[in-house]
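Collaborator request, handled under Task 6.
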Amino acid sequence: MRGWRLPARALNGRLAVFAALVFLAAGLMGASSPEGGRKKYGPFVRVAAEKHGLDENLIHSIIQVESNYNPAAVSVKGAIGLMQLVPETASQYGVQNVFDPQQNIDGGVRYLKDLFSRYRNDLRTVLAAYNAGPDAVKKHKGVPPFPETLRYIRKVLSVYNGRGGTGGGQLYSLRDARGKILLTSDRFYLSLRRDAPSER
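Structure tokens returned to the collaborator:
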């Protein structure tokens, strides 16, 4: 499907049916397990994590909860691909083909990075905004009390904890040996770099 372009406007019924058929075909060929998906799309995640300074394990945790590593996944709300980007967000971040794993991951990670900046690295609020949208976070002055959003946050943090993250509510920034800034909630990194500045 490389090269196929999705318009920024909302998905219509035919596109949803098409995506569902692609999803079914992917399933018949052997849908990715979390372990298989992590291995298959790990290089794209690693590049995006290093490029945008986010925790690689956190990105994997979000992908697993969002799509279970299925690049053809389409939600009933029109969110698409591995990181479940809505067409408007995909367009905003220059993603021309939301079904392309590399483009989808890069766009999703760029969006996450902006959310971390907007919410001062508060992980729970960032996850809430990724799930329910920044407008909902603004309206409720924090994590909205939506059951779906609260379940989403718990799921992502549970997966993240299992991958070595601490799942805390605060992310910290540190500069690695090459001068790159990394955002992480894993205090293990901070123990290695005690001189690393933290953002509270």
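The cover message to the collaborator said: "The domain at 33-192 is CATH 1.10.530.10 (Lysozyme). The radius of gyration is 17 Å. Please let us know whether this matches your experimental observations."
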